[in-house]
Design goal:
The chain is of the alpha+beta class. It is built from three helices and eight strands. The strands form two sheets. It has a five-stranded antiparallel β-sheet with strand order 1-2-3-4-5, with helices on one face. The longest helix is centred in the middle third of the chain and has 26 residues.
Amino acid sequence: MPYAWLTRPSAAPERSGAASASPPAAVLRLWPHRSLPLRGFAGFIGITAALLAVPLLPVLGSPVLWGLLPFLLAALAGLWWALRLSYRSGEVLEELRLWPDRIELERHDPFRPPRRWEANPHWVRTAIHPTGGPVPHYLTLTGAGRTVEIGAFLSEEERLALRPEIEDALARLR
């Protein structure tokens, strides 16, 4: 799954009160699924370069080679640039941090400053919206007078599995 609990709350906190200087009791990191990993990207570019070289074989040693070569190199460079841009636009990262006295959600999008939401975990509620959201089974957190989405890039099954995990982590902190 494209999310991982870096730390999980094991039990209720031993002491209550302001713990903002202490490390979070639980940290959840979420990221979008990659269908083409970086190793696959390198292989794809290499195979594409080899296939683009095939039409050049019959014209080796002739002036036609120099006429075709810039166009084939431009096609390869364009493909590389488009895939790298796609990778960059998919570098979304969400991090949910839980303390006994606060919950914090931070979303990092490429080309935008980070967005943060903070609330008291005692008042935070999770909700799944089967319809009406941008994706089916839209997962939201509500608290501090605001509703925020979490994991909109996850699959439907992953969002359904994530909700009880978040609720369990919140229950352990209360």
